[in-house]
Design goal:
single chain, alpha/beta, Rossmann fold, 2 domains, 4-stranded antiparallel β-sheet, 11 helices, binds adenosine-5'-diphosphate, binds magnesium ion
Length: 333
């Protein structure tokens, strides 16, 4: 596709016995934030590493800004910024000094690196803090400096691999604001993450990846609309659960999921269904505390696509409630 700035076709990567990518087809248009969403082990980092020329594909093709990553890695490197999960900063030096060093490494030259570091610190409100040693920085600000390091060359494409992993909610918001600003400036961002709320907040297009392959694609709203609304029922006591579950399954024709006293079920015609549920639950003697209808979250979308269990609560306490969801941890496949 001509207007795709990042494009992969049947991309494969084998690590010995492990197939990390099994024929990934990606099409990322220019000047958007594209969310590459998937559980741990899905192949997100492998895809980012191939696109950033750090790993070679075993098969298929990847093209960034018109350059094939396998044939023209040098050209690709000139077009991209990469902010991985663990870029290294020198704790004893200030952010400004660190950025100047990164800038010189990315061949900006001494004066160019100096100018660009100052510009970025100013732009992202770090002009003052930028003159303190990064060793004393809180985690969020540190991550922001990593992000700025990846922006030194003014990349056309920025590849972000879980940029807010482990950060608190304020720091995450600061990073999100910076990423949005970049897109306003014309950069294309490929954002690999397992945080559904991050994609919901930032991305205008989403690719859901599992077992090294794309399993769904679309805008966040489009993906959600595919699975219908959700009915939430909270029963008064555990003894009412079996009866309420059976009744919800019969009325909606879908399989409800229970978590404690809370039951969730997808329903195509949620609005007319609710009064019927209330009437029948009442007649059956099951006592309900609350009942409501809500739009599905991206979490619900992925659950319905992959059939995986409900994710655990966000471990770093980022966002409470349904929007803080992430994928369940999955090892080794
Ligand atoms: N260097 C490696 N050697 C062997 N297996 C790897 C290597 N890197 C990744 N894998 C495996 O490839 C799969 C995809 O990993 P990865 O791309 O890191 O997924 P994600 O970033 O989505 O969590 C996993 O099964 C992982 O264990
Ligand atoms: Mg990863």
């Amino acid at each position: 596709m001509d207007d795709a700035i990042v494009h992969t076709s049947r991309l494969r990567k084998q690590f010995g016995e492990v197939a990390a990518l099994t024929g990934l087809d990606l099409m990322v248009p220019s000047n958007i934030i594209y969310g590459l969403l998937g559980p741990k082990g899905a192949g997100k980092s492998t895809a980012v590493q191939i696109l950033s020329t750090l790993t070679k594909p075993t098969g298929g093709r990847a093209v960034v800004a018109g350059f094939d990553v396998a044939r023209y890695p040098e050209e690709v490197r000139k077009m991209i910024g990469i902010a991985g999960q663990d870029a290294s900063l020198d704790d004893r030096l200030t952010a400004r000094e660190n950025l100047r060093i990164f800038g010189r490494r990315s061949r900006l030259g001494t004066r160019g690196a100096r100018r660009r570091a100052d510009e970025l610190l100013e732009r992202f409100d770090l002009a003052q803090a930028g003159d303190r040693p990064v060793g004393g920085y809180p985690g969020g600000r540190r991550r922001l400096v990593h992000l700025l390091a990846s922006l030194l060359p003014g990349p056309a494409v920025l590849l972000l691999d879980e940029p807010t992993k482990g950060l608190d909610v304020r720091s995450r918001r600061a990073i999100w604001a910076s990423v949005r600003q970049l897109v306003a400036d014309g950069t294309t961002v490929l954002l690999a993450t397992q945080y559904l709320d991050e994609v919901d907040q930032l991305a205008s297009a989403v690719g859901v990846i599992d077992h090294g392959n794309l399993i769904a694609e679309g805008g966040p709203a489009q993906l959600k609309s595919q699975i219908g609304r959700h009915i939430d029922v909270v029963v008064e006591a555990a003894e009412h659960l079996p009866c309420a579950m059976a009744l919800l399954e019969r009325i909606t024709g879908r399989c409800p999921e229970a978590d404690g006293l809370h039951i969730v079920v997808a329903a195509v015609d949620a609005v007319p269904t609710v009064p019927q549920i209330v009437r029948e639950l009442d007649a059956s003697g099951a006592v309900i505390r609350t009942i409501g209808i809500r739009e599905p979250s991206l979490d619900d979308v992925v659950l319905s696509l992959t059939g995986k269990n409900a994710p655990p609560a966000e471990p770093v306490g980022c966002v409470a409630g349904g929007t803080g969801a992430r994928f369940p941890a999955q090892e080794g496949h």
